[in-house]
């Protein structure tokens, strides 16, 4: 009898939550995730139920940029605090 529209798996699927040291595949522990996302990068999905840590870091970014005729752009340096989430 034919298999029709059924999938047949020859190899067992990897558990990316735990990783596989033999194949040099890391677990998701320590990976950045998005707390507010509903996609594959969300902390709920990526952290495999282990939860996540939140750290506030400070970055310096260009801001208040102005274009001067002709042809330069001058910007200020602004401090910005962002939250970074990483899987436990």
UniProtKB/TrEMBL annotation:
One of its GO terms (molecular function) is cytokine activity. It is found in: Secreted, Extracellular space, Extracellular matrix. InterPro entries: Wnt, Wnt_C. Its main location: secreted. Keywords: Developmental protein, Disulfide bond, Extracellular matrix, Lipoprotein, Secreted, Wnt signaling pathway. Gene3D superfamilies: 3.30.2460.20. GO terms for cellular component: extracellular space. One of its GO terms (biological process) is canonical Wnt signaling pathway. It comes from the Eukaryota. Ligand for members of the frizzled family of seven transmembrane receptors. Belongs to the Wnt family. This is Protein Wnt. It comes from Notodromas monacha. The lineage of its organism: Eukaryota, Metazoa, Ecdysozoa, Arthropoda, Crustacea.
